[in-house]
Amino acid sequence: MDIGTILGLVVGVLVVLKMAGETSGLYQDASLLLVVVGGIAAMLIAFPLRASLNVLAIIKNVFFKKAVSPSLLIERMVGFAETARREGILALEAALNKEDDPFLSGGVRLAVDGTEPDLIMDILETELRFIEERHRDSQNLLEFLGRYWAIFGAIGALLVLVSSGADIEVVGQAALPLLYGALLYGLVGGPFARKLQAYSQDEILAKRLIIEGIMAIQSGDNPRVVEHKLAVFLAPKYRPSPKPAAPSSPPPAGDHTRENLEYFISEKQEVVLRLVREAVQAHVAEDKQKAKVEEIADKVERGEFSIVALLALLSSGVRNKIMQQIKNPPPPLVEQAPSQGFDFEGLAGLTDKEIQMLLRQIDQKDLVWALKGASDALMEKVLANISERVRTFIKEEMGCARPQPEDILDAQARIVAQVFKLWGRDQIRLV
Questions:
Q1: Is 210 found in the same domain as 110?
Q2: What is the structure's pLDDT at 334?
Q3: What is the CB neighbour count within 10 angstroms for residue 368?
Q4: Over the stretch 362-412, which tens digit does the pLDDT of each residue have?
């Protein structure tokens, strides 16, 4: 319950009673009925019936709106990021609970289902836009209800003056409807609408935090980066305190980056030198400069000069072009494979995390057709690594699909080719 709203109402009424002094003449059934019922009648005319009947629920939100703590929400999103990084994004489905915001749950499930990032953003932004619109409608309803009360207060005062004569007693009676209308607008209509606007701003902020967090998690950002991205939405004094850095752990066994670099340089040296010479010959430069680069390339071949230094001496444009050719060589005629005997059923030997990584890289239609020709054991393992909603969809599609044997073979071959690519990048291990 919002204590500030109740306190404001009580203080407002007490101030009016204090100023009035004598309170016995402040209550008049007919005037109060005219103002309250007249304002409600005007609201029914001005707004659709469904919206008007929702006014009590709107007023209830003023008193009982559950505030969302942005700092706690950031901690929740960082926790999701840590879980996804440690156990895979599919683990987020089990990490959700009933207390989570439906907007948050829906966005996380879209990410778990493997929905494209642009589509997730489009869905969540659309929902957020309509949430804002509904909030504005609620605020307008209360704002206009308060105005209608004030208007009927003025109408009541005029009715009293017109029907009764302008003596002091009548003027006092005429003031009552104006008082009721002004009080209802000043303490309920206007302030309640503004309170709902404040609640709306807090909720929209929370949902924008959710959108940013979900997109960062799906991108695989480090949990600390996710926390920093979300913290900038808040004023510095409201940001969560940074957690102490965890003690650094040694590199994982077998992670010999320096040795890998030395091996790469030795293996690629001939290719790099060829690309350097081709780039130099194609470049519009003086013969003296070209001869200088050729001289250094010869020294690299003799082991008198490092290939890193050679690349560093080149202009940034030439060096970038060479590195792009190294990073993106022309596709080979035959893809590298761990063994000639690996087939689609070999997927059963992958870990759950590796299967989840693979599923994010392949088309769902290929998966449906490929599983039509899979063993029960492999099908069970693959489906166990898919979110419940997508699992239901895949099973329905498999029940309806009627692919030809050559279609199944083609789909399985495309999936195994993707396995080989991940294996070639050391992202999965094959035995």
A1: yes
A2: 52
A3: 21
A4: 888 888 888 888 888 888 888 888 888 788 888 888 888 788 888 888 888
Lowest mean pLDDT among 72-86, 117-131, 326-340: 326-340
Pair (318, 191) in one structural domain: no
Residue 164 structure tokens: 């009764």
CATH code for the domain of 376: 1.10.220.30
Q: How far lies 132's CA from each of 31, 85, 211, 260, in Å?
A: 37, 33, 15, 53
How far apart (Å, rounded) are the C-alpha atoms in residues 205 and 71?
11
| Range(s) of the domain holding residue 384 | 344-424
Please give the pLDDT value at position 236: 63
Maximum Cα–Cα distance across the chain:
116
